[in-house]
TrEMBL record:
It comes from the Bacteria. This is NADPH-dependent 7-cyano-7-deazaguanine reductase. Catalyzes the NADPH-dependent reduction of 7-cyano-7-deazaguanine (preQ0) to 7-aminomethyl-7-deazaguanine (preQ1). The keyword Oxidoreductase applies. One of its GO terms (cellular component) is cytoplasm. The keyword Nuclease does not apply. Substrate binds at V56, E57, L58, H75, E76. Its EC number is 1.7.1.13. It holds the Pfam family QueF. It comes from Sedimenticola thiotaurini. InterPro entries: GTP-CH-I_C/QueF (IPR043133), NADPH_dep_7-cyano-7-deazaG_red (IPR050084), QueF (IPR029500), QueF_type1 (IPR016856). Belongs to the GTP cyclohydrolase I family. QueF type 1 subfamily. Pathway: tRNA modification; tRNA-queuosine biosynthesis. SUPFAM superfamilies: Tetrahydrobiopterin biosynthesis enzymes-like.
Amino acid sequence: MPSQPSKTLETFDNPQPERDYTIRIEVPEFTCLCPKTGQPDFAELTIEYIADKLCVELKSLKMYAWSFRDEGAFHEAVTNQILTDLVNATQPRFMRLTANFNVRGGIYTTVVAEHRAENWQPPVPVTLP
């Protein structure tokens, strides 16, 4: 098999570091294992961030997400671990990770975790009539 899961997140230079703009990435096939039962948990991850100097490279993100397939983790723990790893790799101005887990035992779980760089202020939204 040519590709293997990896915990390495690669980056590239932000092509417009002078501008605040939103990058939105959807990872629809995230899987990990329930730490209690060992059964698979499925989730859709949505990553939204405002880059500073670096952006995350998408193939490495795919291999990174794949690396959780055989790991047991509570939804809250895995969501926060992924956010921490992404923030450590890219040092963004802002990042939000939303993990929407599929139903398990009649219960849906959504975990939202955020990071804001120190001294970063979000721009004022523009409202058009």
